[in-house]
Design a protein that fits this description.
Helices cover 37% and strands 21% of the residues. The protein is an alpha/beta fold and 504 residues long.
């Protein structure tokens, strides 16, 4: 380790309620994407450290699983209060390591906070069912019981929201948890975990490890981990799902996307354009629910010039600068990938309506900045259409009818989200019924549901049957136990042996 590196802050592990300095020899720099400044170093946890985290969670489960519902709920009531009190600090950490604008960083945290609030309502969510007197003197009822040690693997693009989708619901259900944040921006996640411990989560109930492929594989293989929740790329998510399920675990994987918006010519023009521009270029396009393709139906093709002019008004700058709309992408590698995709779009025949490459950002010349970029004439088979760009790039395609647009979307393998913009209720109803996508917006560009409902991405965007929050996740994080009981008194004693299967 160089002297300069030794002076940098180090991200700790959390094992059994304690912040632990890793003994790993493998470390990664955490880099501010707007400046290239190294702001901290994160370890890749050793196998022994990973095993210690899982062991702590396994031991804590023996007592936490018996914690009363009220005890669990009150912890998350306290936790949501602490998140609110520390919102500005959390947003500043997030922006420094991830690059989002400060308002968008607060939005990232807030959408996670909604799930924390939902977890505080666990008393109404983790309820079984009862059928009285299903046979003579026989009652049947169900219990929703925790399953054990659960694990979460989270991505770089939402380092606050996605961890908060995972561990609060798992822990509120009575499980214990091992979290592996993204190694690119783990600092805000660590601060959120610190606040969770401060809110009263007992030692061992929530543990944190760091790492890359080896840590992911260790989570998939460890026999004491019963369930895995993953959000990230399709490549890694597919690996996690198959490796984890082969090891006998429950696995849910939210993965890549190619989200389309259908624009009918009767839509409110300026509102639609504003919605598209915001949904495409916010967070520098690094959202799994970003609108990356707009299908212009009929005369809506005439809106391209207005789309471009609106996109040009967005301010590209560091996330800490007031008025910034588009911050940097996460890394130099991400910058190179997006720039390469833009070059391929040009080479494959799409028309570059707005070129966001090499924007001038005074004072941040080393930042990973790409401005809003728009292609028209995009068709299936082009790289920019077929692959997820994960950057501030909007692909425009023209179709003659709504039905042609629906067919084009349904032919795409991904199914995370879609939207339609129209003033026609009839068209919207046809769209919501015929589209084969898990989450549908009607004049809403990013239809991510509130936690009262479940995140319902589909097809190649999702592996596993149950979503990461809402009612579905209660099923994911609990085991249904069905109990059939009969109590006898002297008046109901059996007259003899009954060898039939029926209850009488």
């Amino acid at each position: 380790m160089t002297n300069a590196a030794s002076q940098l802050p180090t991200v700790k592990l959390i094992i059994n309620g304690e912040f632990v300095e890793s003994s790993s020899r493998e470390w990664r720099d955490i880099i501010n994407p707007a400046t290239q400044e190294v702001i901290a170093r994160v370890p890749f946890a050793t196998p022994d450290e990973i095993n210690a985290a899982v062991s702590a969670a396994k031991e804590a489960f023996t007592t936490w699983r018996k914690a009363p519902i009220g005890t669990r709920a009150r912890i998350f009531l306290k936790y949501q209060q602490l998140i609110r009190e520390n919102m500005k600090e959390l947003a500043a950490i997030l922006t420094a390591e991830q690059g989002k604008t400060l308002p968008d960083a607060e939005g990232d945290i807030f959408r996670g906070l909604e799930v924390v609030e939902h977890a505080a309502n666990i008393g109404n969510l983790q309820m079984g069912e009862l059928a009285n007197n299903v046979a003579g003197g026989v009652d049947t009822y169900t219990l929703l019981q925790p399953i054990g040690v659960c694990a979460g693997i989270t991505p770089f693009n939402f380092p606050a929201m996605i961890p908060l989708w995972m561990f609060p619901m798992a822990i509120a259900c009575g499980n214990t948890f091992v979290l592996k944040p993204s190694e690119q921006d783990p600092m805000v996640t660590m601060r959120l975990v610190e606040l969770a411990l401060q809110a009263g989560i007992p030692p061992g109930v929530l543990n944190v490890i760091h790492g890359g492929e080896q840590a992911v594989n260790a989570i998939c293989d460890h026999p004491d981990i019963k369930a895995i929740s993953f959000v990230g790329s399709t490549k890694v998510g597919t690996h996690v799902y198959h490796r984890g399920t082969l090891a006998g675990k429950r696995v849910q994987c939210m993965m890549g996307a190619k989200n389309h918006a259908v624009i009918l010519p009767d839509a409110n023009k300026q509102q639609t354009i504003n919605s598209l521009v915001g949904a495409t270029f916010g967070a520098a396009g690094q959202r799994c629910m970003a609108v990356s393709v707009a299908l212009l139906v009929g005369d809506a093709k005439d809106w391209i010039a207005d789309l471009v002019s609106t996109a040009k008004t967005l301010k590209v700058n560091a996330g800490t600068e007031p008025g910034t709309d588009v911050g940097p992408v996460i890394s130099c590698a991400a910058y190179d990938r997006v720039a390469t995709m833009i070059e391929r779009g040009i080479a494959e025949g799409a028309k570059l309506e707005l070129d966001g490459r090499n924007p001038k950002v005074p004072g941040y010349e080393k930042g990973n900045f790409i401005g809003p970029t728009i292609f028209s004439g995009v068709k299936p088979g082009m790289t920019i259409y077929d692959q997820e760009i994960f950057g501030p790039v909007l692909c425009l395609a023209t179709v003659a009818t709504l039905q042609e647009g629906i067919a084009m979307i349904n032919a795409n393998p991904n199914g995370n989200g879609t939207a339609i913009f129209t003033q026609s209720g009839a068209a919207a109803r046809v769209f919501q019924e015929e589209i084969d996508i898990g989450q549908v917006g009607i004049n809403v560009p990013i239809p991510v549901p509130v936690p009262l409902f479940s995140f319902t991405g589909s097809r190649a965007s999702k592996l596993g049957d149950l979503g990461p929050y809402g009612k579905q996740v209660i099923t994911f994080y609990t085991q249904t136990k069905t109990i059939t009981q009969r109590w006898f008194d002297d008046s109901t004693l059996s007259a003899g042996v009954n060898t039939t299967i029926a209850l009488k």
